[in-house]
Write a structure and sequence with these properties.
- With 316 residues, the chain is mainly α.
- It has a two-stranded antiparallel ribbon.
- α3 runs antiparallel to α4 and α9 packs across α10.
- The protein contains 15 helices and two strands.
- The two termini are 25 Å apart.
């Protein structure tokens, strides 16, 4: 019988949503308008793909949802912060996210920036409070690496450098990027997305293993961490390819954010570089590579295998 991924996700998304809401309750010390903006962005309807990755990795490592839930929520906080900042006028300049006005459209740019800051720092508070010291330290390191300058943030910088590197206008912030056009190559594109998207996916998998095995005498299984890291690399690139394809082929109403913007801005994407059919072929190849990593783990990794298939065929 085929694995019921929709049922698996449907059973766990309410757990994640309820825990996220709990982390933002009874926060009388937080300014009311900031708390409202944090709730607006963090609790907006979404796939919760990154938290699900944490829960799936924990299962593959012999753990359970309860132990992995704080780490799952922490990574969703980091993801929400990144979306708030990416949507700002100085970045991707979007006005729709998850079917709702973006945070800066709803609350203004200044409060949106501070809301992102608050969610980022709350993520590490959650890890510090939820886990024993060794597990908390391991999770903090994994998440900081995936989200930071050598991970997601660095990928965003590379993306902006490519997009704006050839511009010579008077806008002050553009002057910090190299004035020479960036290379239009598959290697350059995949390097951007290994950091911008893939690094946080890989962090999710590491968080799941640490949540399940962090207190073992010998620590987490390093072979398992490496196997899931390779899976995460392939998953992250495949996810970005399908994201680029959705931007070309779907509507804003269907996927909950503005579409066609990448082409309008001349942004480097898989379809613009290699075409739609080659993009699909590359995504299928990455899926095969990911499945090679998790299939030997047996039944415990079935959700990870099913998730890879979902990413390959997703329509939103």
């Amino acid at each position: 019988m085929a694995f019921d991924l929709p049922g698996y996700l449907a059973a766990r998304q309410p757990l994640v949503d309820a825990q996220l809401a709990a982390y933002l309750s009874d926060r009388a010390e937080v300014p009311a308008v900031l708390l409202e903006a944090m709730r607006y962005s963090l609790l907006a309807p979404g796939k919760r793909l990154r938290p699900m990755l944490v829960l799936m990795a924990a299962q593959a490592a012999g753990g359970n949802d309860e132990a992995a839930l704080p780490a799952a929520c922490a990574v969703e906080m980091v993801h929400a912060y990144s979306l708030i900042h990416d949507d700002l006028p100085a970045m991707d300049d979007d006005d729709l996210r998850r079917g709702l006005p973006t945070c800066h459209k709803k609350f203004g740019e200044a409060l949106a920036i501070l809301t992102g800051d608050a969610l980022l720092t709350l993520a590490f508070e959650v890890l510090a409070r939820a886990y024993p010291p060794r597990t908390a330290a391991g999770c903090t390191l994994v998440l900081a690496r995936g989200a930071g300058a050598a991970g997601m943030v660095g990928g965003q910088v590379d993306d902006l450098a490519w997009e704006r590197g050839g511009e010579t206008g008077g806008d002050r912030e553009k002057s910090y990027f190299p004035r020479t056009p960036q290379p239009r190559t598959l290697a350059a594109l995949e390097q951007i997305h290994r950091l911008k998207t893939g690094a946080l996916f890989r962090a999710c998998l590491g968080l799941g293993v640490w949540a399940a095995q962090g207190e073992r005498v010998e620590g987490p299984d390093h072979a398992l961490l490496e196997r899931l890291d390779v899976y995460g690399r392939s998953l992250g690139l495949a996810f970005q390819i399908t994201d680029d394809l959705l931007d070309v082929e779907r509507t804003a109403a269907q996927i909950g954010k503005r579409t066609g913007k990448d082409a309008a801005r001349g942004k480097l994407t898989y379809p613009s570089l290699v075409g739609v059919e080659e993009s699909r072929r590359r995504a299928a190849q990455l899926a095969r590579e990911a499945l090679l990593q998790v299939t030997p783990l047996g039944e415990a990794a079935t959700p990870l295998a099913a998730l890879m298939e979902f990413v390959l065929t997703r329509q939103y």
